[in-house]
Specification:
By secondary structure, the protein is an alpha+beta fold. The protein contains three helices and eight strands. It starts with 7 loop residues before the first helix and ends in an 8-residue tail after the last strand.
């Protein structure tokens, strides 16, 4: 769910769920929707200024369940998971990339770019709000945000540095 290319079902879910999460005082971080027949999964990631606790996830889950039951945007059975994005958080939006310039990222593209699909390196910048710049093995790659299938932070222990 990266960049401007978001599947219509995911965008429908974002439009439905983001206001619910924000009304409860949390940051709507993003979603992952994996459609697999009766084993589909809807993951909703939330964040907060003081972090996220199990009780926060339970509260958001109850509210989302109620809305999902009424609006019924997923007609088949699915599992709802609500959690913090964690330290190796997925990056979904341009704002996420901007927030984490200078951090290490793991990026997987939808298609090969310069002979590869996977890039692990330092996020060094954003170009024209359309591309991210990732430094990998002494080379900088300009990766189109719309080509990103998945991206996440790579946890770096900064203690003592």
């Amino acid at each position: 769910m990266c960049g401007a290319r978001v599947a219509s079902k995911e965008q429908q879910l974002i439009d439905l769920l983001k206001p619910v999460v924000e009304a409860l005082g949390f940051e709507f971080w993003g979603i992952e929707y994996i459609a697999q027949g009766n084993n589909s999964v809807l993951r909703v990631f939330i964040d907060g200024e003081k972090g996220i606790h199990v009780d926060d996830c339970a509260l958001v889950s109850r509210q989302i369940s109620g809305i999902m039951d009424v609006e019924d945007p997923i007609t088949s059975e699915y599992n709802l998971e609500v959690s913090s994005p964690g330290v190796d958080r997925p990056l979904f939006t341009l704002e996420h990339y901007k927030r984490y310039v200078g951090e290490f990222v793991d990026v997987k593209l939808r298609y090969a770019f310069e002979g590869r699909r996977k890039f692990k390196g330092k996020l060094v910048g954003i170009e024209d709000d359309e591309d991210i710049v990732v430094h990998v093995d002494d080379h900088e790659y300009l990766l189109p945000i719309d080509a990103i299938d998945k991206a996440s932070l790579i946890f770096q222990d900064h203690k003592g540095k």
